[in-house]
Amino acid sequence: MPARPDAAAVSAPPGRTVLDPPDITRALTRIAHEILERNKGAADLVLLGIPTRGVPLATRIAAKIAAVEGAEVPVGSLDVTMYRDDLRMRPARTLLHTDIPPGGIDDKVVVLVDDVLFSGRTIRAALDAMNDVGRPSVVQLAVLVDRGHRQLPIRADFVGKNLPTSLVESVRVRLAEFDDVDAVTIADGPTDGTTDGTTEGER
Amino acid sequence: MRRHLLSAADLTRSDAELILETAEELRSLADRPIKKLPALRGRTIVNLFFEDSTRTRISFEAAAKRLSADVINFSAKGSSLSKGESLKDTALTLEAMGADAVVVRHWASGAPHLLANAGWSRSSVINAGDGTHEHPTQALLDAFTMWRHLGDLDGRRVAIVGDVLHSRVARSNALLLKTLGAEVTLVGPPTLLPYGVEGWDVATSYDLDAVLPKADVVMMLRVQRERMNAAFFPTVREYSRRYGLNGRRMAALQDHTLVMHPGPMNRGMEITADVADSERSVIVEQVTNGVAVRMAVLYLLLGGSEPAHAEDVPGSAGARAGGEQ
Amino acid sequence: MSSYLIKGARVLGGEPADLLLRDGVVAEVGPGLSAQGAEVVDAEGLVALPGLVDLHTHLREPGREDAETVDTGTQAAALGGFTAVHAMANTDPVADTAGVVEQVWRLGREAGHCDVAPVGAVTVGLAGEQLAELGAMADSAARVRVFSDDGKCVSDAVLMRRALEYVKAFDGVVAQHAQEPRLTEDAQMNEGELSGRLGLRGWPAVAEEAVIARDCLLAAHVGSRLHVCHVSTAGSVEIIRWAKSKGWPVTAEVTPHHLLLTDELATTYDPMYKVNPPLRSAADVEALRAGLADGTIDVVATDHAPHPHEDKDCEWQAAAFGMLGLQTALSVVQATMVDAGLLAWGGVADRMATSPARIGRLAGHGRPLAEGEPANLVLYDPAASRVVEPAEMVSLSRNTPYAGRELPGRVVATFLRGNATVLDGKLQ
After folding, report:
1. Cβ contact A93–B303 (<8 Å)
2. In chain B, which residues have their Cβ closer than 8 Å to the Cβ of C283?
3. Which value does ipTM take for this structure?
4. Which is nearest to B180 in space by CA: B152, B148, B211?
5. Which of C185, C203, C315 is the best residue to mutate to test the B interface, defined by the most B CB atoms within 10 Å of its own CB?
6. Degrees (nearest 5) of the Cα angle C78, C81, C85?
7. Which of residues C337, C359, C381 is at a domain's end?
8. Which of the residue ranges A184-198, B101-115, C63-77, C292-306 would you say has the lowest mean pLDDT?
9. What is the CATH number of domain A21-167?
10. pTM given for the model
11. Residues C284 and C350: beta-carbon distance below 8 Å
12. Contact B233/B181 with Cβ under 8 angstroms?
């Protein structure tokens, strides 16, 4: 995993915790089961995490699938930076790591994994990014938190927790792989008033 | 990052590492079926070449097109003897065409500087080689190649051998490698090392055999035979005997030492065929890396509302070394 | 002709006095003079110097009238406080015959802004192969006494020897542009650490110093006068100092820009700073100032070199060498020498009027401001200051290296044989 410390995690206020470590673990376990149930097993399954925090989530889900089904599901990462629709609104952004598993995604059941689903623009970008990589047979979406306020017709197939929020609140996901602790918190005050920033999987 | 890339000295260490990391991400694009990213869609990039250079121009062209930019190639006639259409008039024409960036190669040192600062156009200017001054993207792709093989460049010993005096590649490499923490030694006959090179914060040596055993990278520069006529060295034979990289010298290198050359090579002059074609030569890979590095530069300069801000992310370059994640 | 009563001028920077100019001469000098029908010029606070004499100017006519003409160049000279300029011979056609030098001389007289003393070429066409008809030029109406291939160096040792010997017959002087051609092929800027970094071919100091050393020895050997143009390096100053210590007949000049600017300016790649000989290091600038202060360097000469816009608005290697100098010379000398405490106004009068007139054998100029002397003088306000605007140059060209820079002082009035060529800072 890229050990990229999250600068905002140090500075943002803690807010109120809505998911603690056991909650998160249970949610991921449930998601893993739901994925297997929906797809009737692990055949042709590929998990693609959207960096940064979608990636450790995808890895954890794959581990749970392996524990339950005894099958090793390929895990990768898909950076969507280049496909964002707001590229020209801010200085050029650093690219994150893309790692498509060796078997590729053609004719596979690809489950995109992200930490927070908000406006849906990140997922739209991910679909475009995948289009240039290959042609999955099916694309599904698993998110830890769905906080509503969709700006595009996008929906998640597997949701850890539905979290109705107001636009003045910010949702922050912290994961042990990056932030020393697992926690999902809501705080008052938007991070920087845009749909990105740390509220939506750190962009 | 600054709006223009005129000199390797324009890049801070964070800038340079950001470019290398971005190039690493973009390099894998070459393995995909669709070798295109939409990031520069709608941007216009002009290749303004006042000097012939098919290879560099094609490299920039490929880089721009893979990022979905529109590319216009402009080959200007004219040399130091016949001025042809003036630099200024060309720049004004390009401005009228709405170029977002101009990649310029010119026979006169400082021409990109003039383009960037004379107020003729608002484009980002990328120096693709100006006279005997600099060639920053070449230095970046060289550093990228080294980094992919050797990891973090701190403390690495790089020997740059040959006609340093007339080499813009040597100048840019000396600057960039210092920025990245490497130790540079310039090697050549005294006539081919620039006057005042002692002030460059690099080591120099007239003795190639003394430098080779400790080098982690040996970069051979092209030496033109015609320099003999201006008394830079007496004969081709003497030059290659004293400063050419041949099989015997290659055997004195450490196992991990890379052999590089910016091209085009003068086989038999500064480098022999057996060295150029050996396994430790990464000369062909340098060309591949060139497209990825130029894609990174174009993306970071033009992909957003302004050039990328390279934050000091601790341990970023080191952690990413050699493909390990 | 009008008379002028100049009131309260500090003659050579000394005590205030009045000067009455009548019939082309200084009629009276003293305190509290009466007007007697003369036009009064209030010179309170102004310094009065003899009209300046430039030993090295390029007026470009005939041949490059797009860059400058005798008329516009002498206008610039008058505004700079000059009453005489020596016009260099690298025109087109070259001033290597009596015909061309007389043409330039006449153009100067017709324009009337200052005296023009044409310089004759040493060799035909400046080609460095055959001596030009130096005697004919000396005998012509232009009465040439200064001979130079400036722009190019008389590099052939035998030719230089012959030229030095030949001009003795008419008390001429050979003014050498010291530049060993083979060491400076396609040279662009001072050879130093910076030239290596910038990728611009270097012009090594030794290429100037070696020629100066040779020429000093030749001048001593044949007993003829040598004048060294635009000295630019510390080493050159030392060689000239040594030659003078031997009593040899050597004189030397320095340009205002070499007293102020260094090669650091080339980092901008702006060809406004491209000049021959090139701008050098800070150590060289310091040595030149010291040399001018102690008299090793006898004169300040502008090397005023106009170039049209397209020859400077391009990449460095394609640009022409040269800078304007006439209108800003006195201000630069004030800034670098007077305000720095290295030279008093009396010294300025010597370096910029008396000595150049003596070297050029120019009668009537550089004379003391005393009764009976020709009324060639300049009134200068050292307390003023201004930001240099290229658009204000009356030259046809705009290539001044001081654009946007604040310089002290202002020429208020210039008088040429009692005629005001400049009054209140404006051409008459």
Report:
1. yes
2. none
3. 0.85
4. B152
5. C315
6. 65
7. C359
8. A184-198
9. 3.40.50.2020
10. 0.88
11. no
12. no
- Note whether C224 and C316 are same-domain residues: yes
- Nearest-angstrom CA–CA distance, C70 and C346: 30
CATH number at residue B38: 3.40.50.1370
**C281 close to C192: Cβ distance less than 8 angstroms:** yes
B contacts of A7 (beta carbons < 8 Å): 311
Q: Among C359, C383, C400, where does a domain finish?
A: C359
Instruction: Tell me whether residues C199 and B87 touch, CB distance under 8 A.
Output: no
CB C427 within 8 A of CB C75: yes
Supply the DSSP symbol for C321.
Answer: P
Q: How many domains does chain B have?
A: 2
Chains B and C touch (3+ CB pairs under 8 A): yes
Instruction: Answer yes or no: are the C-beta atoms of A13 and A178 closer than 8 Å.
Output: no
Give the 3-state secondary structure of residue B106.
Answer: strand
Identify all chain B residues contacting C200, using CB atoms and an 8 Å cutoff: 109-110, 131, 133
pLDDT of residue A14: 65
Min Cα distance B22 → chain A (Å) is 6
Residues B147, B273 share a domain: yes
Domain range for C213: 52-359
Of B158, B117, B323, nearest to B253 by C-alpha is: B158
Give yes or no: residues C189 and C236 share one domain: yes
Q: What's the token pair of residue C377?
A: 């003088």
Q: Is B302 on the interface with A (CB under 8 A)?
A: yes
Residue A192 pLDDT greater than 80, yes or no? no
For residue B294, the enclosing domain spans 8-134+287-310
Chain A residue with the nearest C-alpha to that of B296: A95
Question: Are both B87 and B142 inside the same structural domain?
Answer: no
β-strands C419-423, C426-427: how paired?
antiparallel
Residue B316 pLDDT exceeds 90? no
DSSP output for B242-291: HH-B-HHHHHTS-TT-EEE--S---BTTTB-HHHHTSTTB-HHHHHHHHH
